[in-house]
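Researcher: Batch entry, complex prediction.
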Amino acid sequence: MAVEVDIDVEVLKCEIKKTYARVSQEPEEDFIFPTGRAWVLDLGYPPELVDRLPEAAAESFAGVANPFALGTLQRGEAVLDVGSGAGTDSLVAAQMVGAEGSVTGLDMTPEMLRKARAAAAEMEATNVAFVEGEAESLPFEDESFDVVISNGVIDLIPDKDAVFSEIQRVLRPGGRIQIADVTIQNPVSEEGRRKIDLWTG
Ligand SMILES: C[S@@+](CC[C@H](N)C(=O)[O-])C[C@H]1O[C@@H](n2cnc3c(N)ncnc32)[C@H](O)[C@@H]1O
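Model: Structure tokens for the complex:
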């Protein structure tokens, strides 16, 4: 069910981009959410895959859980990472699917995309590409992917129906989603929903 949100979505996107540009450019800063390689390991990612991650990706990891806890990806699969940030999940996925598979990371924050591309180049990962775009209107053909992963992104987006409808559109029949995200147990008050700071973190 869609929730009415009395918030200027363009202002919100602008604030989200500012926040995650900082996570990209000043990863040592204290954020209200955990970040970095130690957090990746705490979440139970396979250490041997984390070891191969360049620091550029790991230091700006800002996920909320581990989407691979829902299952290891298979060799040869085509994967979309919605809200790929600095690229940690995309680069973990790239190691799982191997050279015969492919990973596309999508993000709307240019600074995050730059960092993810630099990390992929440093890792010499040739099966990963990072694309600028928005989760609510994915710039991909119908039925392009076997798996959609996402980590800590959909909670930031008011129009969740649009995101899930786009994910369904780009998944092949029989495709699957492996999403790590924040959920709420109780409805958030109208006043709370209007607070941009609560959305961005
Ligand atoms: C909390 S970070 C998580 C990044 C990454 N998944 C990770 O685990 O490190 C949220 C990311 O989602 C991106 N994002 C937020 N809203 C988006 C949208 N509507 N479309 C595309 N990307 C979005 C932000 O730019 C940011 O890089």
